[in-house]
């Protein structure tokens, strides 16, 4: 085995999908920037390429690895400076019993596309006896096979990519779809022109789809490219990424929670997601801090400033954020108890027009299981929205100290994530990315694109991770169906048209694309009555709308976001919990819930203390007045009876 690979070690033994794994490494566009990664023989023994980074201490060899030069920082971080590196591909035959050092790749050039195609050839030319079972057939099928698929009603999708003899699109799409259930992909050559005519195919490559119910038709995509075909097929209803086995849920009660699916449009941004995210951020995530002081307070104040000025949501939420901003800006204190912030956020004077829902309703961020997606998804959406608003409405930041600063949102986000985000590990990853290149952002548009690029890098790192929702696979975003013009192919490799991506992002994360469907009716009496009742019962805030069983950290942890406490030791949600479990966490959370119902109106503890102070002060005043007049009246009496005195 040549050169260990962390991915192999991490994933080895978790089912045989290694063909797909190397395909993921080399297939999609992100391989272009990473190139020189050591690969060794996979556990199932597929043909495996080891694109090794090997030191060549002496003369500079032919065919320098361009991706290494581009990613110099990464290379020099892992290898001593001054050493020379070269990309070499070694191939290991599946199930080989002989000791082998691999076969050297000797293609016409060292372009990524050539390497990829050579790998496909090696895979396809595998001798039948030792064919890796996880690898699908890559040879073209015949017209008769296609006709029998049409008659078979197999209950799953069957896609056939028609292409010319030298094309690799079909095989690439087949490999792209390996990790997906409920779909089979084959390829056919364009030799039988009469058959193609019957199917209505006038040009190749084209994709023909046979539906589970037996109906069939030509797939319509904006461009006949691999990424478009793959993306279309992955987005078909019931086509899901094969799920990784998750530990069993320990609690029967929790198991009985059902996800009620809300239909939504992926091309839209939902107010409900942004508001639910804000609610979680202000009432749960922040509650892990008993008080805010110093750098923490500054971070929070800056965050509130940015969001108060740029949040494009509904007026009552904007007004609440504005009030919070003004209150924080005018507070002459170096330390603020979290309760005071919560009091303001929980403001229930509907007449004042401030309101932030206390219910969690995920729409575009809903997961196919309760523990998936939710808050982190909404946080991404919130920050993308803010970068876009800063770029399209720069005047909003005038007078805040952030005007003219292209990194205003990014730096604020960076500090928020580092200081408050429940997932510490995520914060560290984000900080690494920020350190690397955030300083290079010179305009508000670049900030929009910077965040988009980094988010895609996170997506790429987390693809196939336990926290990935099979219904929402982590893929380069926006997908071709959302933005066809954002995608192009250069030298056979997928690439982005960044100008178009910027246009798309500005439209997608704009106020005009924000829809209120599923959002909580603002300030409806029911909302407050329900909240008041729950508090009267002493059961605190429950974003899921259910009564809390007991008042501990667990109970304030919204089940919708963090899910049941399973042994998801590596999952994001577990990491999100860690900060809430900090020693002061439960105490603080208890305090956070201290909103006292009084006369049926939700008075906060701050209101109550002010009332007491006023009451005592007015009683004292009345007593002083009483004694004053008593003394004066005594004097008058004395004067009356002894006028000579
Ligand atoms: C700053 C930050 C860092 C994180 N780091 C980690 C980490 O290190 N490890 C970890 O396990 N989890 C991390 N997470 C969580 C992880 O990124 C996801 O948020 C989580 O797994 C939920 O994924 P999702 O499927 O909802 O999609 P998300 O990645 O949360 O995306 C939410 C939505 O944003 C849109 N979107 C997707 N990509 C882009 C893009 N490139 N540009 C603009 N919009 C896009 C899509 O509509 C998508 O549905 C991080 C979250 C944040 C906010």
TrEMBL record:
Catalytic EC class: oxidoreductase
Pfam family membership, one: FAD_SOX
Domain ERV/ALR sulfhydryl oxidase: 368-477
Names of the cofactor(s): FAD
Skewed-composition ranges (Basic and acidic residues): 530-539
UniProt cross-references to PROSITE patterns, sorted A to Z: ERV_ALR
Enzyme Commission number, as recorded: 1.8.3.2
Keywords: Disulfide bond, FAD, Flavoprotein, Membrane, Oxidoreductase, Signal, Transmembrane, Transmembrane helix
Recorded catalytic activity of this chain's protein: 2 R'C(R)SH + O2 = R'C(R)S-S(R)CR' + H2O2
Region (Disordered): 521-551
GO MF entries: flavin-dependent sulfhydryl oxidase activity
Bilayer-crossing regions: 612-629
Superkingdom of origin organism: Eukaryota
Keyword Nucleus assigned: no
Function noted in UniProt: Catalyzes the oxidation of sulfhydryl groups in peptide and protein thiols to disulfides with the reduction of oxygen to hydrogen peroxide.
Stated family: Belongs to the quiescin-sulfhydryl oxidase (QSOX) family.
This protein's name: Sulfhydryl oxidase
Biological source species: Rattus norvegicus (Rat)
């Amino acid at each position: 085995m040549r050169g260990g690979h962390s991915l192999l070690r991490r994933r080895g033994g978790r089912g045989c999908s290694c063909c797909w794994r190397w395909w993921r490494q080399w297939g999609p566009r992100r391989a272009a920037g990473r190139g020189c990664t050591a690969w060794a023989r996979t556990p199932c023994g597929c043909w495996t390429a080891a694109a090794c980074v090997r030191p060549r201490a002496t003369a500079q060899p032919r065919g320098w690895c361009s991706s290494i030069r581009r990613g110099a920082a990464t290379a020099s971080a892992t290898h001593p400076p001054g050493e020379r590196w070269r990309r070499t591909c070694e191939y290991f035959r599946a199930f080989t019993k002989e000791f082998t050092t691999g076969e050297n790749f000797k293609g016409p050039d060292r372009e990524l596309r050539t390497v990829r195609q050579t790998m496909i050839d090696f895979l396809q030319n595998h001798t039948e006896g030792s064919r890796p079972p996880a690898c699908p057939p890559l040879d073209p099928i015949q017209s008769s096979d296609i006709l029998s698929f049409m008659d078979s009603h197999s209950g799953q999708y069957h896609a056939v990519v028609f292409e010319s003899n030298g094309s690799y699109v079909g095989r690439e799409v087949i490999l792209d779809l390996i990790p997906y259930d409920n779909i089979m992909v084959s390829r056919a050559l364009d030799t039988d022109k009469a058959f193609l005519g019957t199917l209505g195919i006038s040009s190749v490559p084209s994709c023909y789809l046979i539906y589970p119910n037996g109906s069939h038709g030509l797939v319509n995509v904006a461009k006949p490219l691999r990424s478009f075909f793959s993306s279309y097929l992955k987005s078909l209803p019931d086509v899901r990424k094969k799920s990784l086995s998750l530990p069993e849920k320990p609690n029967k009660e929790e198991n009985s929670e059902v996800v009620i699916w809300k239909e939504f449009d992926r091309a839209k941004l939902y107010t409900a997601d942004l508001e639910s995210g804000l609610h979680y951020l202000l009432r749960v995530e922040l509650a892990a801090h008993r008080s805010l002081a110093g750098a923490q307070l500054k971070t929070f104040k800056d965050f509130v400033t940015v969001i108060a000025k740029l949040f494009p949501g509904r007026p009552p939420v904007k007004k609440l954020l504005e009030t919070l901003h003004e209150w924080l800006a005018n507070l002459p204190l170096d330390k603020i108890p979290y309760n005071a912030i919560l009091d303001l956020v929980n403001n229930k004077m509907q007449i004042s027009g401030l309101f932030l829902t206390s219910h969690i309703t995920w729409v575009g961020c809903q997961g196919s299981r309760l523990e998936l997606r939710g808050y982190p998804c909404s946080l991404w959406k919130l920050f993308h929205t803010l970068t876009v608003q800063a770029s399209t409405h720069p005047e909003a930041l005038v007078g805040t100290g952030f005007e003219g600063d292209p990194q205003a949102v990014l730096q604020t986000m960076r500090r928020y994530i580092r200081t408050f985000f429940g997932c510490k590990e995520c914060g560290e990853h984000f900080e690494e990315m920020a350190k690397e290149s955030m300083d290079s952002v010179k305009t508000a548009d670049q900030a929009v694109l910077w965040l988009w690029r980094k988010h895609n890098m996170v997506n790429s790192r987390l693809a196939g991770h336990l926290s990935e929702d099979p219904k929402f696979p982590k893929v380069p975003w926006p997908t071709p169906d959302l933005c066809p013009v954002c995608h192009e192919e250069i030298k056979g490799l997928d690439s982005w048209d960044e100008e178009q991506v910027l246009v798309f992002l500005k439209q997608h994360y704009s106020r005009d694309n924000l829809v209120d469907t599923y959002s909580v009716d603002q300030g409806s009496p029911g909302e407050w009555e329900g909240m008041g009742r729950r508090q009267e019962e002493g059961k605190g805030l429950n974003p899921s709308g259910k009564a809390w069983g007991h008042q501990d950290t667990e109970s304030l942890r919204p089940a919708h976001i963090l899910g049941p406490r399973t042994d998801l030791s590596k999952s994001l949600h577990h990491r999100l919990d860690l900060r809430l479990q900090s020693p002061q966490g439960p105490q603080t959370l208890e305090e956070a819930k201290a909103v006292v119902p009084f006369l049926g109106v939700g008075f906060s503890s701050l209101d109550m203390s002010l009332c007491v102070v006023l009451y005592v002060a007015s009683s004292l005043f009345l007593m002083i007045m009483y004694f004053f007049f008593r003394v004066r009246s005594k004097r008058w009496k004395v004067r009356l009876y002894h006028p000579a005195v």
